[in-house]
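In the design runs reported in the main text, the only information available to the sequence generator was the tokenized backbone. The following block is the verbatim input for one such run; it is reproduced so that readers can re-run the procedure and compare outputs position by position.
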């Protein structure tokens, strides 16, 4: 179950923007399930969902979401200045700032996040495949951010499983 607690405006807007850009908590929870079910066969979607929820409660994660989505939206509307407009619009491979923003999320729960992030970024399951398809809009930042949230939630889940064993 997702616990009830007070959310401030930054968290509310971060969650709203994720939703508006086509990313549901459920989609991210599915990525966590994909990453973790091989280690925890008893894993439930409920547990995945609640770990995603806890990651989204972190300020550094909310800040990364707001910054990344804002740049994606401005690029989609053609409102950035050259050469950044073209770089973000084309999702140029050597740009790399999208991955740097995502790493600020991966870092939140320690180093196992890195392995999960690298793996999911290579495999691109579920929602990540949708975000990578250019015809669904400009998601240069968001694809990395979503992968990073899933990786961080997986680390959190792994830590919590170890401490209850
Ligand atoms: Mg990217």
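Verbatim output:
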């Amino acid at each position: 179950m997702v616990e009830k607690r007070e959310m401030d405006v930054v968290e509310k807007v971060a969650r709203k923007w994720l939703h508006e850009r086509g990313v549901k908590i459920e989609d991210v929870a599915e990525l966590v399930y994909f990453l973790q079910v091989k280690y925890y066969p008893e894993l439930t979607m409920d547990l995945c969902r609640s770990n995603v929820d806890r990651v989204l409660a972190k300020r550094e994660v909310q800040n990364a979401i707001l910054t990344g989505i804002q740049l994606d939206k401005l690029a989609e509307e053609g409102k950035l200045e050259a050469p950044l407009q073209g770089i973000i619009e084309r999702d140029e491979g050597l740009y790399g700032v999208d991955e740097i923003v995502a790493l600020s999320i991966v870092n939140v729960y320690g180093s196992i996040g890195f392995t999960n992030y690298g793996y999911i970024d290579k495999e691109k399951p579920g929602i990540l495949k949708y975000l990578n398809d250019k015809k669904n809009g400009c998601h240069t930042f968001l694809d990395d951010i979503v992968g990073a949230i899933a990786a961080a939630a997986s680390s959190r889940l792994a830590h919590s499983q170890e401490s209850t064993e």
